[in-house]
Amino acid sequence: MFTQEELIQFHGVFRNSQEFLEIDCGCTNPRYGDTPGKLRVYIEGKIEIDCTCMDNCPKVNISPIEFARHAGRTNAHNNWKSQIWVFSHDGHKIALWRTCLLKYHTHIFQRPLRQVIHRDEFLRCSQCNKERRFILRNNRRCSDVPNHSLTCDDGEERGSRKVCRGCPRDSKCGGCEKCVCFGCDWCRFDDCNCQTCVEFIMNM
Question: CA angle 116-120-121, nearest 5°?
Fold first, then answer.
């Protein structure tokens, strides 16, 4: 997977096979200190980490985002590449994004079920005008939902169900600063001409 020239800059390499590379890693929390782990980079692009913060830690084969959250870091879904580090040959910590270890990584983070609403959700179908939970930006019709699991004949989602993804205090909340994201790489688009998107893209 990786050449000897690439790996000579790292310390703590356990295994370098045709299937995966295993190496010492860690994540630093300013309050609680370092959380150690073993990182595996697979040839197909997947990354897994076994946490070694204690001998019987149940966090094994977890994603780097889960590992960073386990270490107490916030906003891990956006910043895990800079929050997780490996050791250089001289013992210094290097953020993953500064290394060659991510050259095979292709997996995209999938939003957890109960995470706050984003601007690309709870839109209305362009045909039946019913409020739907469209996750992909190009979904605008009930027929666009994957696996055809939704049609225009289906009723709208009950208000009591929206509390799972909406404001934790009010299931009828239409979107406030507490439950709607007002700017991230999921809900701001460089081909959108609205003022909010333009300002967000310019300030990235």
Answer: 60
In angstroms, the CA 18 to CA 31 distance is 38
d(CA 188, CA 110): 17
Portion of the chain with pLDDT greater than 70, in percent: 64
The tokens for 200 are 């967000």
Q: Determine the 3-state secondary structure of 1 from DSSP.
A: coil
Could you tell me which of 33, 26, 37 has the C-alpha nearest to residue 92?
A: 26
Query: Can you tell me whether residue 144 is helix, strand or coil?
Result: helix
Q: Between the CA of residue 59 and those of 36, 37, 53, 165, 173, what are the distances in Å?
A: 12, 10, 9, 26, 35
pLDDT (tens digit, 9 = 90+) per residue, 136-178?
Answer: 555 667 877 766 677 888 888 776 665 555 455 455 555 555 5
pLDDT single digits (tens) 65-83: 889 989 988 778 778 999 9
Helices and strands in the chain, H and E counts = 4, 9
User: Could you read off the pLDDT of 15-34 as tens digits, one per residue?
Assistant: 888 788 899 999 998 888 99
Compute CA 50 distance to the chain's CA centroid, rounded to the nearest angstrom. Answer: 18
* Residue 106 CB coordination number (10 Å): 10
Token pair for 194: 């609205």
CA distances from 98 to 84, 89, 118, 196 (A): 11, 14, 30, 31
* Cα angle 77-109-50, degrees, rounded to a multiple of 5: 75
Which pTM was predicted? 0.52
**Which phi and psi angles does 6 have, rounded to 5°?**
-75, -40
